[in-house]
User: What shape does this take?
Amino acid sequence: MIFGRKSTIKRDRSQTISFTVFLPTFNEKTTIERKLEDLMTQTAFGKYDGEVLVYDCSTDGTRGILDEYALRDRRIRVIEQRTRVGMARTFNEAMDEAKGDILVKTDSDSLSRSSENLANLLEAFSANDHVGGVTGVCVNVGREGAFRGLMTRLQIAETNLDSTVIAHSSSLVAIRRSALEKVDPDSMAEDTEEFLRVRRAGLRTIVDPSVVSVERTPSAFFDRFQQKQRRAHGIIRALCQNADMLFNPRYGRYGMIVLPVNFFLLLISPSLLLVDLLGLIYLAFTIHLLVGLVGVVGLILILSCYLSRRPSWLVATVDMQLFALVGMLNLLLGVSNPTWKVYRDT
Assistant: This one.
């Protein structure tokens, strides 16, 4: 079923695979050891030829820990960055430095649920020559968990139709080096932008729901708001830059169904909600107060449900629309910051 909970992915464990894991770090002193232990205990390092490429510009002692690990394990290479140049520019540098046939990106604030995650991701390439990118999924609790659950269902449907749009480097995202292209240096969603480029080149991008990671998310509402709207901004920007793929039969069901649905959810629907809200305010003050009040009460009920700590599909949907709206407004206003912020909450 297209809208099921699983996607069928073939795997081939008989082929030789070389891979490079790209790990950017910035002031991760309290968490980097746990991340490296989690990463280096992945079974893929025992099965295949792999390396870890760490780009670091920390000022808190993270570099010392990285150097210690690199001395003990030659598969770890540490590259120092004197200043923060943004994730996209760092990602472009990693493309040139990586030695493996598959480039895998992961974030310092996520941990794998299984030691087979990386191997599963890589083996999906061996069995499918037409696959150019594979991403895993993230799980969380509470409001973020509801949002992630909704995203996973949507991405499984996209994969079953053709290809998924959004890549999750907070889990694991892998791309064939032969399909890689340099991304916009100011991109705020370099992984998703790369997935769009891979599909443009004629290869599929899929989600593997068996590759599950737990992402560290900020507990404070404002911090979470900043993180989520920035991601939405970057994804919307990448979609707009590839708008020529929309309703383009050259890309099959991806161009005719998958991309239009993403454009609707992230651009059109939030815009309609904003127009509806302004319309209700107009009705309340110019035409009929009662009509406007009924609409405002409905919005208040939805907002109350959203602010509650009980996760639901409604909370997840409002989440998506709210952050997409703010991200779209930031895009229109030209607000942009290619560097990311490190959050310490769990």
About this structure: Strands lie at 18-25, 49-56, 76-80, 102-105, 110-112, 131-139, 173-176, 204-215. The two ends are 35 Å apart (CA to CA). Residues 112-245 form a domain with the Spore Coat Polysaccharide Biosynthesis Protein SpsA; Chain A fold (CATH 3.90.550.10). The chain has a mean pLDDT of 84.
